[in-house]
């Protein structure tokens, strides 16, 4: 699939969006960062549930790291300023892809001209080793300058999606869903949680304001699990409240108090099954701790609603993806 009405600008100088307006001059970091996102791309990000301004900020930070002291000296030295090329983002291994539009955003931030894209797959698709994911045609210098930043985000997000898909597959046939936590990379939470969705998982709260989660330290500070729950409900009556419990006794306390969601911390599958019987549908239940891909189905079969897996975001390996410049014909 090609982006419509997005021709390449004439080679030999900057596009209208670039700050410098000069022909033949190397671009410094400030000039790259002022180019911004294409409106059509911004709409695609919005449609995916991502904030285009946040994605652009992340792309700018990534490029800033590479261009903080000037230009890509290797690329400027070896590539003519007016050269145009096509490059393919290609999977080096099988997995689930996520972050293609984010990679485009990085390219959009860097590119001094408009660029053409051909989209071979979409986020959430399973891909095989050697499969083309995205092809981009634009100035060669800009492609190579954006390469590593775009791949860093794309490989990271695809790794999270691939790991999540393994958990989602393990839970197939049960009502349980795998869910992330706030154990995310600072600054990348929105992207990593989006990748979880691409892999078939569901999101926990995005921030501390979205929902309450009464944990063990809150319980100690408040003098008991029921007291902590009541304090939150009184202060923020409209906010959903999840309560972490360590024992079946605590479970009975909070379900009787009216908790919306109860986190069963380090319960065994047998204890989870007993908890499901005690709650009897009065609250949703989330298992956390002791979870592995090998025992995921056993926990899901107890009837819990969610498996909370911090490793989706804090321990997922990247999916290996490369950018291959096509040889000149």
From TrEMBL:
Pfam families: QRPTase_C, QRPTase_N. GO terms for molecular function: nicotinate-nucleotide diphosphorylase (carboxylating) activity. Its EC number is 2.4.2.19. It catalyses: nicotinate beta-D-ribonucleotide + CO2 + diphosphate = quinolinate + 5-phospho-alpha-D-ribose 1-diphosphate + 2 H(+). Residues 160-324 form the Quinolinate phosphoribosyl transferase C-terminal domain. Keywords: Glycosyltransferase, Pyridine nucleotide biosynthesis, Transferase. CDD domains: QPRTase. It comes from the Bacteria. Pathway: Cofactor biosynthesis; NAD(+) biosynthesis; nicotinate D-ribonucleotide from quinolinate: step 1/1. Belongs to the NadC/ModD family. Involved in the catabolism of quinolinic acid (QA). PANTHER family: NICOTINATE-NUCLEOTIDE PYROPHOSPHORYLASE [CARBOXYLATING]. This is nicotinate-nucleotide diphosphorylase (carboxylating). It comes from Streptomyces pseudovenezuelae.
């Amino acid at each position: 699939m090609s982006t419509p009405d997005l021709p390449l600008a004439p080679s030999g100088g900057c596009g209208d969006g670039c700050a410098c307006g000069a022909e033949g001059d190397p671009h410094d970091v400030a000039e790259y960062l002022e180019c911004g996102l294409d409106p059509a791309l911004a709409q695609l990000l919005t449609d995916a549930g991502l904030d285009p301004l946040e994605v652009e900020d992340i792309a700018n930070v990534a490029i800033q790291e590479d261009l903080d002291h000037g230009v890509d000296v290797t690329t400027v030295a070896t590539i003519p300023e007016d050269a145009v090329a096509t490059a393919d983002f290609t999977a080096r291994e099988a997995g689930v892809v996520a972050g293609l539009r984010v990679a485009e955003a990085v390219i959009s931030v860097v590119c001094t001209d408009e660029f053409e894209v051909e989209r071979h797959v979409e986020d959430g698709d399973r891909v095989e080793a050697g499969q083309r994911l995205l092809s981009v045609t634009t100035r060669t210098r800009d492609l190579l300058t954006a390469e590593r930043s775009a791949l860093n985000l794309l490989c990271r997000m695809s790794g999270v999606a691939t790991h999540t898909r393994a958990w989602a597959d393990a839970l197939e046939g049960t009502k349980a869903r795998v869910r992330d936590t706030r154990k995310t990379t600072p600054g990348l939470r929105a992207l990593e949680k989006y990748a979880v969705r691409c892999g078939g998982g569901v999101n926990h709260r995005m921030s501390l304001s979205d929902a309450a989660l009464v944990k063990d330290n809150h319980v100690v500070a408040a003098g008991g699990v029921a007291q902590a729950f009541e304090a939150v409900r009184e202060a923020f009556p409209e906010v959903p409240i999840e309560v972490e419990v360590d024992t079946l006794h605590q479970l009975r306390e909070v379900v009787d108090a009216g908790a919306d969601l109860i986190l069963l911390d380090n319960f065994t599958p047998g204890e989870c099954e007993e908890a499901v019987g005690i709650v009897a549908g009065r609250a949703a239940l989330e298992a956390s701790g002791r979870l592995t891909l090998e025992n995921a189905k056993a926990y899901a079969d107890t009837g819990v609603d969610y498996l909370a897996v911090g490793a989706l975001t804090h321990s997922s390996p990247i999916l290996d993806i490369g950018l291959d410049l096509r040889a000149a014909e």
